[in-house]
Design a protein that fits this description.
heterodimer, A: 7-stranded mixed beta sheet, B: mainly beta, 6-stranded mixed beta sheet, 5-stranded antiparallel beta sheet
Chain lengths: 119, 109
């Protein structure tokens, strides 16, 4: 397994168009996360899935954004009616829970990201 | 709500120096703390993860410490090299993973 993969790596679109990104997690990981990162800032949490269930969504995830993970494997993030403010790097991460002496912790592994530019 | 702060925002050092990057967080009820490296235009690479029950972790020239009571973590880089130049991010989870804005490190040859 080569890690988390994301496609496309770069996307340029015109304002008002819809875009869809794909994330393929590490195969045995049951959790999948989406983040958005703008220049000079750390990533901001958008949403996460455990298997196919979307368990949490950030307030950053407006109704123009939708994420799916239909079979609990890959995930898609769709942005409808894109705006210039949507320009950012969209990062995907995956994790599993690993227990050690009763402690459960989740180490997240990140993909290379999709750079979105809205013109 | 968890808030994570990293100081300094940028750091430039000559090759061979030892250096310390700082991370502070407001909610001490964390499961763990994770340090990442990010090269320009790339994704994040996990460097070290410290469980809440641990006080430090080491990997090669990197050593990360965690003091939950004071809400602080440090990343120590020994004998810095130009290849260490990158942005270093710390992240503390409570309900979700919250990142600092990072420290942009430049190691000059």
């Amino acid at each position: 397994d080569t890690g988390v993969s994301q496609n496309p790596r770069h996307k340029i679109t015109k304002r008002g168009q819809n875009v869809t990104f794909r994330c393929d997690p590490i195969s045995e990981h049951n959790r999948l996360y989406w983040y958005r990162q703008t220049l000079g800032q750390g990533p901001e949490f958008l949403t996460y899935f455990q298997n196919e269930a979307q368990l949490e969504k950030s307030r950053l995830l407006s109704d123009r954004f939708s994420a799916e993970r239909p079979k609990g494997s890959f995930s898609t993030l769709e942005i409808q009616r894109t705006e210039q403010g949507d320009s950012a790097m969209y990062l995907c991460a995956s994790s599993t829970n690993r227990g050690d002496r009763g402690n459960t912790w989740y180490e997240q592994y990140f993909g290379p990201g999709t750079r979105l530019t809205v013109t | 709500k968890q808030e994570v702060t990293q100081i300094p925002a940028a750091l430039s050092v000559p090759e061979g120096e030892n250096l310390v990057l700082n991370c502070s967080f407001t909610d001490s009820a964390i499961y763990n703390l994770q340090w990442f490296r990010q090269d320009p235009g790339k994704g994040l690479t996990s460097l070290l993860l410290i469980q809440s029950s641990q006080r430090e972790q080491t990997s090669g020239r990197l050593n990360a410490s965690l003091d939950k009571s004071s809400g602080r973590s440090t990343l120590y880089i020994a004998a810095s090299q130009p290849g260490d130049s990158a942005t270093y991010l710390c992240a503390a989870p409570s309900r979700q993973l919250t990142f600092g804005s990072g420290t942009q490190l430049t190691v000059l040859p």
